[in-house]
Amino acid sequence: MNLHKPPTPKPLFLERMKKILKNDYENYLEALKEQPLRSIRCNTLKISPETLKKKLEAKNWKIKQPWKNYPEVMIIKGKFADENLIGNEENEEVDNATTAQKINKNYLIQNKTLIPLEPGELGRALEHLLGYYYIQELSSMLPVIAMNPQADERILDLCSAPGSKTTQISAKIKNTGTIIANEISLGRIKILASNLERCGVTNTLITKKDGITLCKKLKKMNFYFDKILVDAPCSGEGTLRSSPKTCIMWNIKTIETLSKTQKRLFESAFEILKPNGELVYSTCTHAPEENEAVVDFILKTFKDKIKIEEIKLPIKFRQGITQLENEKFNPEVKKCARIYPQDNNTEGFFLAKMRKVK
Amino acid sequence: MTPQHYLKILTEKEKREIVQKLNKQFGIKEVPGIITMHGKERLFLFQGDLNEKEIKELEQNVPIERVGIYFAKLIGNEIKLSIDGVQVLKDQITKNILEINEKQAEQWMMGRELLFDNVFEKEDNGIGENNLNKNSKDKINNEKADKKSFSINKLNNSDEQSEEQIWVDEHLRESASPTKTSVGASWAGSRFPGKKPHGFVIIKFKDDFLGTGKASEQKITNFIPKNRRLKEKVF
Predict the structure, then answer these.
(1) Strands B64-67 and B42-46
(2) ipTM (interface predicted TM)
(3) pTM value?
(4) Residue B209: closest C-alpha in chain A
(5) Number of CB pairs < 8 Å for A and B?
(6) Contact A200 B69 (CB under 8 A)
(7) Which end of chain B is more exposed for a tag (fewer CB within 10 A), N or C?
(8) pLDDT tens, A231-265?
(9) B72-90 exposure pattern, b = at least 16 Cβ within 10 A, e = fewer
């Protein structure tokens, strides 16, 4: 197990997680101590997963493709140190090998010592600079997998920066259709634009507006979408391992404020969905106020116009929770997906997929 | 407040002129999609399925920051493709490709200029070697051994491509300047002596297209943006 200094969450946060996770709480705490995996997504607009894998392996990186149906998803397990070939005294197994074994290339490869990549090494690599891959946490790839965008669709990514999911959508639909990538912050738009360029995303328009106003304006224009992603701004409880400062910033009042914003974003976005169109709502937090409570609100608001869809994901996930303190949610929220660090060694995430039925 | 409209979508005629320039310089025959212009020189390429009218209508209602990606810049009568523009259009590029070797690619991606220096001829005449340190000489010898790997045929990505259109690297010499790398020019020993690259050239290393440089008498100017440069040696 790869341990690192665990973050120190606030007591109220831990108390809440204990209520949500019950018997699994201790496993969750243990998972927080583990180093996050280093994962990338091959940018299939520029290179095939097979070719990228070869290029990265030529750099002595050890690559694992964890999901059979998604070969573009890769985990960088580390890199082989060159000096760990035959004769390394520290590697007893290699030294004790027979001569025949030593000249067997596979044997050598298997016995080379794996060392972690240096900090920033993934981002500095030539293949990254050329846009052959995007550094993206595994759970962050799930909303687009759940969305399953198709060629020629019109898609809105309402809270788009820094562009991980926009570039993923574009790669999936091979630069066809149109994506509107919206972001309110100019600073973040620069990062978004830079990532879209690096990845060769040519089917996207970037708009700068708060999500709620944008949706109203688009509705006024009768501009509707086949699919919408609302990857909402959230309290980030799921990112404690990679972003320990979240522990410091965590605040129950912020969660309440965010929940209101998320409801309005979701509600506005749903209005500009085409009939039979689909909306994926996601956050990187575990807080039910920002997740199931938002979905429950939407179900109440749109009643028979909306249906929650079952989600298929390549990793283990748990169903949505139906109660927060004394508040009971629509039992349909069970169809939402909760992703916990202890289940797949990923960051925490939440996903819901809705269809406009009328 | 009235939305600010600044988006200029090129007309068919204007687009044709851009494609003609691209064809003349790089052999590019078509640029699918809508080209927009920001300012007087920056060109953006959008290949989504919204048409011109829909984009204009959208712009009248919401602030559009970008339409597609920055792919080229007009500079006088010439056009410079951005590193991403090169990659988007790479399958069509048949002219003015300069293939560089591994060491040069590294230097190029670090943002350094490549210096033309007719070392090949000087060295054959026994001139110039005295100016090189031992490491540089070793590198030259190593490069000589690699020469055959840079064959012209290997570079062709079009049947129409002629040898004149490609300059094959044959030599490398470390420059005294930490920000420049010398590049031996292929024309020195090629069938087309005197055919120096001039103007914008596409830089290529193996299968990777590394953007555009501008060749002058002595060097190839580097346009790799800072945020896309290698911070350290990788090869």
Answers:
(1) unpaired
(2) 0.89
(3) 0.85
(4) A130
(5) 98
(6) yes
(7) N
(8) 999 999 999 998 888 888 899 999 999 999 999 99
(9) bbbeeeebbbbbbbbbbbb
